[in-house]
Design goal:
This protein has 270 residues and is mainly α. The chain contains eleven helices and two strands. The N terminus and C terminus are likely disordered. The structure holds a DNA duplex (21 and 21 nucleotides).
Length: 270
DNA sequence: AAATAAGTCAACCGCGTTCCC
DNA sequence: AGGGAACGCGGTTGACTTATT
């Protein structure tokens, strides 16, 4: 049985790819698509196996890849997602457009791993960091002192944090800009993971919604599934951001809206 | 300047899952 | 339904570069 003939592995090249091989692979895939990876090297005239071609394409040749240093926002995102998901590099990479799982994994092992472990021990000493028991809303609305870490924020829009938006979607808020509630869910709990994830998205400019009201955090009494919920709901949020952005015509992109109006949780030291 | 240690990163390997004959 | 190929993922390796002694 099987779908293709066995390839003589002894004739297959290994090791670093030459520019000529890259060129052949790139041209072939751009013209024909990859289809079945095992047939790619045969059709492209490469002495590699399909697995190697796939890896080279995904990690190096694929259009849209970012090269170069990770930005501080990307670092924060990786740290937070890793806290939430563990070594799920492909899932983390999905949240970082233009970055590959391999690249993120390497970066984690070479840089972030150490930094994360040292910052964790520091964080344990800092009781001044906003704790899950403290209301985010209170910080934003000014009933708690908010220390801005640097940039000024355009404060004229009502601000809705993602978690709050999620709570709103789940029935927490019914303001004039609130979303339709498709199904009532139990309110959820701020777990550490959810908090880390929220933090990461604030850093990368993903959460703040203008319009809508502010709510308290909710609690589902279990904590499990929260991060998953957040992931799923974030997809909806991103659509909404894009939609909101389109309403501004040429004035703002969705990214700009987020970066101009969000308040990173990490900056809310009390 | 040379030797060596440490860091980086592209690529390989093995395993679990999915697909298809 | 069974079995092998293909795929995708995470862990690991090793070549290469940079820093340090």
């Amino acid at each position: 049985m099987g779908r293709s003939k066995a390839v003589d592995k002894s004739k297959q090249r290994k090791g670093l790819w030459s520019p000529e091989e890259d060129e052949r692979l790139r041209n072939y895939i751009l013209q024909h698509g990859h289809g079945c990876w095992s047939s790619v090297p045969i059709n492209a005239g490469l002495k590699r196996n399909g697995k190697s071609c796939r890896l080279r394409w995904i990690n190096y040749l694929r259009p849209g890849l970012k090269r170069g240093m990770f930005t501080p926002q990307e670092e924060e995102t990786i740290l937070a997602l890793h806290r939430a998901l563990g070594n799920k590099w492909s899932q983390i990479a999905q949240r970082l457009p233009g970055r590959t799982d391999n690249e993120i994994k390497n970066y984690w092992h070479s840089c972030l791993k150490k930094r994360n472990s040292s910052s964790r021990s520091n964080a344990e000493d800092k009781t001044s960091i906003l704790s899950p028991s403290k209301s985010i809303t209170a910080c934003i609305s000014g009933s708690e002192q908010v220390v801005d870490g640097g940039g000024s924020h355009k404060g004229s829009f009502p601000k809705l944090f993602f978690a709050e938006w999620l709570a709103a979607e789940n029935g927490g808020v019914h303001g004039e800009n609130s979303m339709a509630v498709e199904e009532e869910k139990e309110p959820f709990l701020y777990t550490n993971e959810a908090f880390a994830f929220l933090n990461s998205k604030h850093q990368s400019g993903g959460y703040l919604m203008q319009g809508g009201g502010l709510t308290e955090a909710y609690d589902d009494g279990e904590g499990s599934g929260v991060v998953e919920d957040i992931f799923n709901s974030q997809l909806k949020l991103e659509d909404q951001v894009a939609e909101t952005a389109s309403g501004f015509g040429d004035l703002f992109s969705g990214e700009e809206i987020c970066s101009d109006f969000f308040m990173p949780i990490s900056q809310m030291y009390i």
